[in-house]
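Continuing from yesterday's entry. The apo prediction looked reasonable, so today I'm repeating it with flavin-adenine dinucleotide included to see how the binding region is handled. Same sequence as before; SMILES copied from the compound registry.
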Amino acid sequence: MSREHRDAIIVGAGFAGLYALHRLRDDLGLRATALEAGGGVGGTWYWNRYPGARCDVESLDYQYSFSDELLHEWQWTERYPAQEEILRYLQHVAERFDLLRDISLDTRVTSAVLDEASTRWTVRTDTGEELTARFLIMATGCLSVPKAPEVPGADTFAGTVHHTGRWPHEGVDFTGKRVVVIGTGSSGVQAIPEIAEQAAEVTVFQRTPNFIAPAWNGPLDPETARALGVPESFARPRIARGRGALRALLLDAADDVPLREQLGRLAVRMSHRAPHLLWLAIVAAPAQRAVAVGGPLLRRGAVAVVQLQPGAVDRVGRRDVDAPPAEVAP
Ligand SMILES: Cc1cc2nc3c(=O)[nH]c(=O)nc-3n(C[C@H](O)[C@H](O)[C@H](O)COP(=O)(O)OP(=O)(O)OC[C@H]3O[C@@H](n4cnc5c(N)ncnc54)[C@H](O)[C@@H]3O)c2cc1C
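Holo prediction written out below.
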């Protein structure tokens, strides 16, 4: 077993880990190493490759601001970037700042023990390394461990099961398949329209309806991106004000039952006029608890194959998934 000493060890190579490595090594001059369980950098955007995975924060905001050069040279192609584009961006950052030479991929930290007398951490990994360091930075994210639903019988299911947080790198072909999706949070809302494009039948189990505000995504005109992306106008007060107002409205709505119900009714009315806004109606029953911003719209052709089942899944059989009957207000 090798045993090496560093000034700092960083666990994780997502947005936080990459930046921490850059700051500690290149600005503070520390000997730093990042240890990453995944086979590549990117964190959230390395693991979450489900169809439709996309950021619900605008690309010009969802990027680093520590380097003017980076801000100038990277061109986002869409207002709300897809997983693949964010992953490409983070790979670019890792290469551009020569971070990869100090990142060990496919290396999971299994223990970290502090010796209080010497104020040294001893960090062990599943690859058999043992490192010591004065500083240990856990850039492990808050959503990097997938949680499977604890439903009786789930382990007996005879079909194929996928979790959005550990999607196969080669993708999944749903052509002609009957698919059940459990959950209509951000990931479910993004994945369902894409799965419905291929599948023969999609049944969506929804325990808790959320509001979904359409993202109005689209290509990012290079002129606009250049103008908005330059560091001197990074604050973009006009856009920030608009976004602030939307956020305030949605956050207010989360605690304000009458307002929530009003928004819900509005969404249902809109979806009658424009069937491709079905998602708004699906998620806007007046019992919402949370608010999710963003999400694509269900395209016309896919509406027919999607069925909504209100209620939590309470049992999984060998061949099917079931929920108790539930009442949902129209
Ligand atoms: C599906 C999904 C969609 C999201 N969408 C948005 C969005 O639209 N807007 C937004 O602002 N935020 C979004 N987030 C939140 C997103 O996680 C953060 O924006 C950001 O990417 C977190 O970066 P991070 O570096 O802190 O953590 P992560 O990106 O989670 O990176 C942590 C890394 O630590 C590694 N790791 C964990 N434990 C160990 C260990 N023991 N040993 C070695 N490595 C380990 C993991 O493999 C992972 O690569 C989303 C999250 C998810 C899961």
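Comparison notes:
- DSSP finds ten helices and 13 strands in the chain.
- The first helix runs from residue 15 to 27.
Will overlay with the apo model tomorrow.
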